[in-house]
Structures are given as C-alpha cells and as structure tokens.
Amino acid sequence: MLLKNALIAAESGTYEGDLRITGEVFSETGRGLLPVFGEEVIDLTGKIVLPGGVDVHTHFDLDVGIARATDDFYTGTVAAACGGTTTVVDHMAFGPKGCTIRHQAEAYHKLADGKAVVDYGFHGVLDHVDAAILNELEKLIDEGITSHKFYLTYAGKISDGEAFALMRKAGELGIILAVHPENDGVVNFLRAELSKSGKTAPIYHARSRPAECEAEAINRMILLAHMANDAPLYIVHLTNALGLGLIKAARLRGQENLFAETCPQYLLLDESKYLEPDGLKYVMSPPLREKSDNEALWKGLQNGDIETIGTDHCPFFYEKEKQLGKDDFTKAPNGAPGVEARMALMYSYGVAGGRITLPQMVQLCSTAPAKLFGLYPKKGVIKLQSDADFVVIDPQKRVALTQSLLHENCDYTPYEGLSLSGWPVMTALRGEIIAKDGEFLGEKGRGKFLKRGLPRLIW
Ligand code: URP
Ligand code: ZN
Ligand code: ZN
Is 308 left (phi over 0), alpha (psi -120 to 50) or beta? Predict the structure, then answer.
C-alpha cells in the first residue's frame, strides 16, 4: 500500500509526502515515491496520517459486581478502531477475593481471544500482596504482562504496606505499577455523611470525592515509590491541579520514574455536568472537577508534565445500569464511554484548538503510552519496520459529536453536542484498513495479544 501526499506525523518529524507499507510494517517514507506493480495507492491530499492510537486505559467487559461494562472486547475494539485507536491495554477486573493475577489473566484471554479487532494487552490487577503475588510478578513478565494496577479505594483496595512491598518488587524487576489514587477513608466518611442527610443527587458524587482526596493519595504513593528506590509509578486518570502540582514537585526533587495520565473527560468536562438532569451519565471516579482544573491539565500537557492520554473507557447504559443510581448516586456503577472519541477530541480541542502541537498529540496518544507499557517501537510510532498501524484524520471535517455516530455499545456519549474540527476517516492495523468513513471493515478476532516488554522510562 502506498499513501500519497499526506501530512505524516512520523517519529523523525512531520513531513508532507508519502508512506509505503509492505506486509504488516512501514517500509519506506519520502516524497515522490512511485508505486510498484500491484500496489494500492491512496491519495491523502489534505489529510494527516498519525500512528494508530494506543489507549492504555480501557475496561472492556469489566465486572463491577452490580453491573458489567457494556462493551466487550468485540464492540469495544470496533469502537476503538473506528476512532483511530489500534492498540489497547485493558485493565483487568478484580476476580474472586484473593485470587492470583494469573487467574484473571486466563479469564481475560478468554474474554478477548477471537473477539478483539485491534491489538491488545492486559494490565494485571491485585487485591492483596503476599509472597505468592510478588513471585507471580516475575513469571508474568515472560507472559507479556509487565504492568499491574492497584487501587486505594473500592473493595479490592490494598494497604500502604502492601503497596510499598509491591513497589519495591516492581522496581527490582523493572516493571511499572499503575495506581488508582483516592483516599478511601475520607470517601467513605463523606458518602455516609451525605447519604444520612439525604444528599444523594449526582452532584454529591463529586462532593464525596474532593480533589484533595485524590491529591493526598497521589502524594502518599509518590513518597512510597520514592522510599521504594524510586520504583516506576504511573498515576491513572489525573483530574486536578492540586495533584498535578504534587507530581511536579516530586519531579523537581529528582523523582523521575513518575508518570501521569489524564483523560479527555477531565480536560473538556467539568462538575457542572452533575447538575444537569442526566447527571448520572458522568458518575465516574475520580469525578469531574472545576474548569480551572481543565485548564491546569491542558497546561500540564503543553509543558510535558503529563505523559499520556487514556480514556478510562467503562460504559454503562444511561437508561439501564446508570438508573440504579436514580435515587442515590452511590448505587450507580462508576464509569463512562470514551474509547472512540479520544483521537478526534484530542485533535480537535488540542491540535486544531491550538493547545498542543501535532507532535505532542502523537506523543500523548501513541508514542509515550507505547514506550511506558513495553510496546515501542512496534507500536505508537511511524518509523521503518514498526507495525503499519495508522489513523488518517481529515482536518477539514466538521462534526457535531453525537452518540449515533459512534460504535460504542452505549446509549450516550459524555461529549454529546461538542463541535469537532477534524475526524478520523481511515484506520489501519498492521497494514490492513479496518475502518473507513465510520464503517468497520476489519475482521472479528484479528486483534493479536501483545506480549509486552519492559517499560521504557526515558525518552
Ligand atoms: O469510574 C471509573 N473510573 N470506573 C472504572 C474503574 C476505574 O476506577 O478506573
Ligand atoms: Zn480508576
Ligand atoms: Zn479505569
């Protein structure tokens, strides 16, 4: 396949020209490339070619006890493909209390195998730490699971001592830990207090999980990671200025193995959404914050203080599962859809909006997540011999985002009505076009499990 006359966001720099794909990899870049016999030639004048998106924060088929996320590995990855994302690293759900990581890895292989249409990996998850779990971490490296997540709240939370033991071991092995940071004690105290006084509307979801709750847990984990010989720590779904300030302060003290992810919802939406009649749509943890936090996070992206954009894609139908919370927000399953709109939103509000550059978008949405989670240089980059995963964005295409345009198995998008200037019009995975003009063209089960290597922490 030969892509002609596009603006190409390659690793070596952005250039106007051509890109050749041979088999499953990029094989030649340049200007004025001539087609060889039998080659498909696609003229992309006026379009932009970026590396396929790498979303390292999805929750397909997530079982949260009261409900199950409504996108499975088929529908979720079809949505990813149509939105320009060609690799996902999914966060496993907790299994039966006290189970091994491998127990869940096996369950997840069954969920994804034969269904996924983009390439995928899994982050391990743990609800306790003991000698057996610490031993498993090493064995799982050979199986391509080189990152694990722990939670400081929810039923599967671990203690500070467990987190510290985990960090020390992860640091020794060179793997990376992701943390969901919220102060469980304060969250539960506030939820009980609000509930007692009848404050059960969606806005109290935000009031029960203030930014300080998240920032306190971020800071605590930063210091634990420092005591654990600066073990690599990845902070998921950062929402607020206070937490970002603590991350920056730690880096200024010299703690380098510290990485932060934010998500489009924390850049583009704010807590006023909870006051709307359908406020339950936005019940996610951590909650949406203030407009000033949106702005601080954009600044963090501009300055390189935040490394990645994930989505935390975790959909539930508004008319069904979310209604469990109609009389009490604490009963609603937490999470919202987002895997499909990420690239369009970041192009439109980031690049076209003048907040970040095209190379910054590529770093945030593809290259940095690939590096941190052991996928680079196979994934996340346009470079010779890298997998020919790419997305074509039409910067002229104006779209009013609405749920019916999307393939996510959900009855709403949190971004309903947002005006987009730029839209993904073609996606390819390993040299094969899998989505075009909003239509999925790929094949169920073609997505491959990616045995990930160790994280690359310096770039
Ligand atoms: O509300 C959310 N974010 N649900 C998904 C699980 C998590 O905390 O990442
Ligand atoms: Zn989380
Ligand atoms: Zn999540």
Answer: beta
